[in-house]
Amino acid sequence: MSSTTPEKRSADEKRSESISEDVATSQPEIGEAVSRRHIMRKLDIHLLPFVSLLYLLSFLDRANIGNARVAGMAADVGLVGLKYNVIAAVFFIPYALAEVPSNIALKLFRPSIWIPTIMLAWGLVMTLMCLCNTYEGLIIARVFLGLTEAGLFPGITYYISLWYPRSKQARRVAIFFSAATVAGAFGGLLAFGIEHMEGLGGLHGWQWIFCLEGILTVLVAVASYFYMHDYPETASFLTDAERIHVVNMLKEDSNSLATHYDRKFVWQAMLDYKTYVQVSIYIGLLIPVYAIALFTPTIVNLLGFTAAQAQLLTIPPFVVGCLFTILVGIYSDRYNLRGPFIVGGCLVALIGYIILYTQTKPGVAYFGAILAATGIYPTIAVDLAWAGGNAGGDVKRGVVIAMVIGIGNLGGICSSFIYIHPPRFFLGHGIIMGFLGLSIVMSLFAMWDYNRINKQKEKLCEKEGIDHSRRQEFSELGDHSPLFRYTL
């Protein structure tokens, strides 16, 4: 049993106990009056547009360095050699290190306090980045941007898992993550317009990119304090019957696994080899994603298009990636499968990079860039739903998600240094193909391993007569509970 004392219990545990008492005492008629489809739609309307907007701004702020480079930053600041690569890379060091502590803080504090606060912090950093006009200044700004942005992506991914059952998460994470592809498209369009502010207020056009996008983030962060909902138990947009229905649905989905904070759940996540299998899959996916975000404007520019054309031509790959991210997420949930969709997406992206590697005609190579984005972007959402859904218990799930995203984001350092031999970028394309192969191999292993463990648990339950009436006995075992089944 947990060693957590009454004084140390989290607010989440107390809320959970309170709502459980409500369920036990009131038990309103929940059936025809409360349709699960209606409740899911209600959750989607109140949660998904908002969190998608937050991530759109997050990805826009971290990736706009690529647009700024094409808009004249490299020439104005003297970014020769590997200087741009260093500026792109330093972001990922504090970003990776701060993600696990941030998700633990999200569990200890309310999401409506923690998420807007870190968002306000990075919005201020982004805004003030417009004052940077030296190489050293840009490095310092990117370090603080990585530190302050760290908690948003794993935090929102974890936040979604607290509202939806596992079989409904992939499409929601896909919709939320599709904001990254929209950010890529919107960033190119926005940068194209902002460039024309060159010289206004004594700032270069690329400095205005940082300034205006940072101010937008600050404004949305302030609004978030008043709009963001914390948990299903306290959601004001749900009726009492709907609230109880959602909580019961989540309890049933998790087999009543523990929701309170205890350090042992953190260790369960850190010492589980399956966490590192998911980390390796995610690294292989994220290196291509960041390479696309950071270098697509440069790659397109060097295919023979002008800088202005390159800003606009970055839009189609991200738009197509956005559409397929949502489509794949929907089908992944429909069939309750994760691994096959990751493998399939990697194979499509692999074809795109083979085209980029082998073709010299601008039109054909540009099609390869579109194909690469089409294949790789959908895999991120599916993999995060896979990693989070296969981690049992609230705290372990939060730590696993943060570790996968945090360690995986160290791959962003690799992404920053592999595109160094223009204009064909053989080294960069070749390394990315290798990492796509890593994700394919590790996804196949994970599917085999999860299936093997599920069969072992089924035999144990049959042998020992274990059924759902005994689930409280295993509430603190997380996904090691004999009643927990992994999604393939």
TrEMBL record:
Kindly list the residue ranges recorded as spanning the membrane: 43-60, 80-100, 112-131, 137-161, 173-194, 206-228, 279-300, 312-332, 339-358, 364-386, 398-420, 426-448
Outline the segment boundaries, as ranges, of region: Disordered: 1-27
Q: Which Pfam families match?
A: MFS_1
Gene Ontology cellular component terms for the protein in this record: membrane
- Please provide the record's keywords in A-Z order: Membrane, Transmembrane, Transmembrane helix, Transport
Q: Mostly located where?
A: membrane
- UniProt subcellular location: Membrane
Q: Which InterPro entries match?
A: MFS (IPR011701), MFS_dom (IPR020846), MFS_trans_sf (IPR036259)
Source domain of life is: Eukaryota
* Ranges of compositional bias, category Basic and acidic residues: 1-18
Membrane topology classification: Multi-pass membrane protein
- The answer to whether the entry has keyword Transmembrane helix is yes
Domain Major facilitator superfamily (MFS) profile, first and last residues per copy: 47-488
Name the Gene Ontology molecular function terms of this record. Answer: transmembrane transporter activity
Q: PANTHER family of this UniProt entry?
A: MAJOR FACILITATOR SUPERFAMILY (MFS) PROFILE DOMAIN-CONTAINING PROTEIN, PERMEASE-RELATED
Name of this chain's protein: Major facilitator superfamily (MFS) profile domain-containing protein
Taxonomic source organism: Pleurotus ostreatus
- Record lineage: Eukaryota, Fungi, Dikarya, Basidiomycota, Agaricomycotina
